[in-house]
Design brief:
The chain is mostly helical. 77% of the residues lie in helices and 2% in strands. It starts with a helix and ends in a 14-residue tail after the last helix. It comes from Cutibacterium porci.
């Protein structure tokens, strides 16, 4: 074990790696990219619905509340998937769980597009819930899988691919939405084969779903799960491939993993976890998940169109706006990927969280001092306020996508000991989806009460998130997963 760890650390400092370790890193990186195809679908699916929601409302004659239910149905499915996926992956394996996600994604892609003829609005909700179960399971299990196959000194950046995958999914789906909508003359217009543009948007979900199904079948099982299943020799083989360890070094790692599982060599369920010595650690993970949503990542974008219009972006410039937002997101997440293993998870969360709550405070201040119009604060009446708000939005994007966006996944995947990882991941990811659902559900009511007050509230949560992280989160950068129990 010590020989392997020292060799990896030397590579991190800049010395050339041994060829076998360099090849192992490339292999581990390719596995991490494949594992993030589920989160890619998550981003893709969310943007598809965002582009289709008005046409869906017209198709099924939905009111505002029913449209909101259609929008949140995927989150409800994601919550269900997240709650059960971690423990299911303990029983049948991380890889097998990820494989079973594919039918759920394909179900929504194909049948969601045909919902007008298969049961209408209720069937569309079912499709969204089923698809949500799939991507909820994938986004829960993927960080743990990557954590369990990645070398310790690059584990953070590999898990952070999840956030980049979500952003790229949003961008590609947004681009497809624009192309399809313009080709048809509107999302409610008929495009081809008797299908409307919004139905073709749903069918485009087949692209990431099929790619996910094909590529996930090519990955090996997690070595930590193989040890828990009593398949130590297979685990040693996988470890050699992803770390570059010799056969003896891999067997040493297997023995270290076996010791962390305890005498019975098993993982614990949710009830056992809540009665264990690690229940405080799990609550910290759940709180970090909640704060990720309470910092306002969904709420900030509610007024994004209004803010961009205030500085000259018209509605028909949606692609330019999407490109600008995506640019800042990509810059942020790439910065996080490059820095997280050098600076550490805790400091990145504190620094990024500080930028987040300052940015939210600026947006709140703009809404506080902007003159009131018929539909709320009239930011467009003052160009300076418009530019200030857009600048704050871009700073928020940089802060969130470089820290709380990707690093939540990192700490969720690696902060829990081997014995409780599956159950603990389900609880943390479930908290993430549950609070996300509440934010999406309550945000329109909060904004109707007071836009300024809403963003001041988010700013306050941002401050609490930084204080909580500084007080309770322990640094995990550079540590082996077998050290987490300490």
């Amino acid at each position: 074990m010590s020989t392997s760890t020292n060799s990896v650390a030397t590579g991190k400092r800049g010395a050339p790696l041994e060829p076998r370790r360099a090849a192992a890193r490339r292999y581990a990186t390719s596995l991490a990219v494949i594992a993030t195809l589920g989160p890619f679908f998550y981003g893709f699916e969310g943007m598809v619905l965002n582009g289709a929601i008005k046409a869906v409302g017209s198709e099924f004659h939905l009111g505002a509340f029913a449209q909101g239910v259609a929008g949140s149905a995927g989150i409800i499915g994601g919550l269900i998937g997240a709650i059960f996926a971690g423990r299911v992956s303990d029983r049948i394996g991380r890889r097998t769980t990820l494989l079973w996600v594919a039918p759920f994604l394909l179900f929504e892609a194909v049948l969601g597009a045909l919902s007008p003829w298969l049961g209408g609005y209720a069937f569309l909700l079912l499709c969204r819930i089923v698809g949500g179960i799939g991507f909820g399971a994938a986004t829960t299990v993927a960080p743990g899988y990557v954590a369990e196959i990645a070398p310790a000194d690059i584990r953070g950046r590999l898990i952070a691919f999840r956030q980049l995958a979500i952003i790229l999914g949003l961008f590609f789906a947004g681009t497809i939405n624009i192309i399809v909508s313009r080709s048809a003359g509107g999302t409610a217009a008929t495009l081809a084969l008797g299908l409307k543009a919004w139905q073709w948007m749903f069918l485009c979900l087949l692209i990431p779903a099929i790619f996910y199904a094909i590529m996930t079948a090519r990955i090996p099982e997690s070595p930590r799960w193989l040890v828990a299943a009593g398949r130590g020799d297979e685990a040693a083989t996988v470890l050699s491939k992803v770390t570059g360890d010799t056969a003896d070094e891999a067997q040493d790692r297997v023995e270290a993993i076996r010791q962390t599982l305890g005498a019975e060599e098993r993982t614990l369920g949710v009830r056992a976890v809540m009665n264990s010595q690690w229940k405080g650690l799990v609550f910290v993970g759940m709180a970090i998940a909640a704060f990720q949503q309470l910092t306002g990542t969904n709420g900030v974008f509610f007024y994004s169109n209004t803010l961009f219009e205030a500085v000259g972006f018209s509605e028909d410039m949606a692609l330019q706006q999407t490109l600008l937002i995506t640019c800042f997101k990509v810059v942020g997440v790439v910065s996080g990927i490059l820095l997280v293993d050098r600076i550490g998870r805790k400091r990145m969360l504190i620094w990024g969280g500080t930028l987040i709550f300052i940015s939210l405070g600026v947006v709140a201040l703009v809404f506080t001092i902007a003159p009131m119009g018929e539909n709320g604060p009239d930011v467009a009446s003052n160009p300076f306020l418009g530019f200030l708000a857009v600048a704050a939005l871009c700073c928020f994007l940089l802060g969130f996508t470089s820290s709380w966006g990707p690093i939540f996944s990192i700490v969720m995947g690696e902060m829990f000991p081997n014995q409780i990882r599956g159950a603990a991941m389900s609880m943390a990811s479930g908290a993430d989806f549950f609070v996300n659902f509440l934010v999406v559900l309550l945000f329109p009511f909060l904004v109707s009460w007071s836009p300024a007050g809403t963003y001041w509230l988010y700013c306050g949560f941002g401050i609490l998130a930084v204080i909580f992280t500084a007080r309770y989160l322990h640094e995990t950068a550079g540590k082996e997963l077998e050290e987490m129990g300490a």
